[in-house]
Amino acid sequence: MRPQRGFSLPEVLVALVILAIVITTTIAMFARRQQYLRESSETILVWQAIWNEAEIWRRVEWTDIKSQPAFSSDTSILTPLNPFTTKVEVASSSDDPNVKNVTLTVLWDYDEQNKSYRRNAHLSVLRSDTGGSNLW
Amino acid sequence: MVRRQRGFTLVEMLVTVAIFGVFVVIIGTLTYNMYYVQQKWPINYMSHPEVGGVVARVRRDVLDSLHYPGEFEGFLQTPKTLIIYVVGQDGYAKTIIYDFRRTGEVRRLEYKSKELESTWIGRAMPTFEVGDFELDSGQVAVRLMAKDTGGKVAIDQIFFPRSHP
Questions:
Q1: In chain B, which residue's Cα lies nearest the Cα of A53?
Q2: All structural domains of chain A with their residue ranges
Q3: Residues 43-62 of A with CB under 8 A from B
Q4: Other CB atoms within 10 A of residue A112 CB
Q5: pLDDT (tens digit per residue) in B71-110
Q6: What is the tens place of the pLDDT at every residue in B67-81?
Q7: CA distance B90 to A22
Q8: I want to staple B64 with a disulfide (CB 3.0 to 4.6 A). Which of A91, B86, B157, B162 is the partner?
Q9: How far apart are CA B56 and CA B95, in angstroms?
């Protein structure tokens, strides 16, 4: 008759530890992948909104280049990011009064505890006074 | 030989069910997260080279555009058909037609005078639509939008023509 015996307790424990490591690592990788995909989708949407706004600010008349509390363009593409904030900040160059720095900002991924946004994207466009009509 | 038979004890069953429960919770959470992401965010078409190709072509053609004819060779200017009259790099005028009417397909037809010079077809495309966006100064941009199969806006780009002397 063939002798029969089960696994010993240390054997089972070692096997379980290895299995737990493999499963935990796989799940962690999966979760991280999901996070990267989500952040990638957010970034693509945000930059489309910023590009559109930049197209507008490249063409705005020099005298109309002033800070604004929100983007002028349609930001409906950012709907999945709700709540989000957009703003346009204009600063005159300290070196040359005929140059303005237009900074377009999108803030999203609101943190309720810290009352701040976790993610942001900025684009700065330099505009200069050509002294005549708009070059664009 | 009489084999001794016995079932699992209550403690063994409880431990087994608890371990199984942990796995079910983990898998359920992951599945919910996947579903949530899928429902909330549109498909990332910009990582698709063929779709990026459509956006890049429209951007270039709008930059080179002089005007947008109402109709050309049986095509009408509609949200599903964009007709652009351009001056190309070679200095010759061309009429470009973007046909977004077929589901999952985009056609770019390039005419020199009335003669069809080239056709480019992109497949596995989202549903594109063309609109316009006007600045306070009166400058008009072409607005290219695309929605994914769930109806979420995945692409929204505005392109202004460059100024021509």
A1: B158
A2: 9-128
A3: 44-45, 48-49, 51-52, 55-56, 59-61
A4: 6
A5: 999 999 999 999 999 987 788 899 999 999 999 999 999 9
A6: 899 999 999 999 999
A7: 61
A8: B86
A9: 17
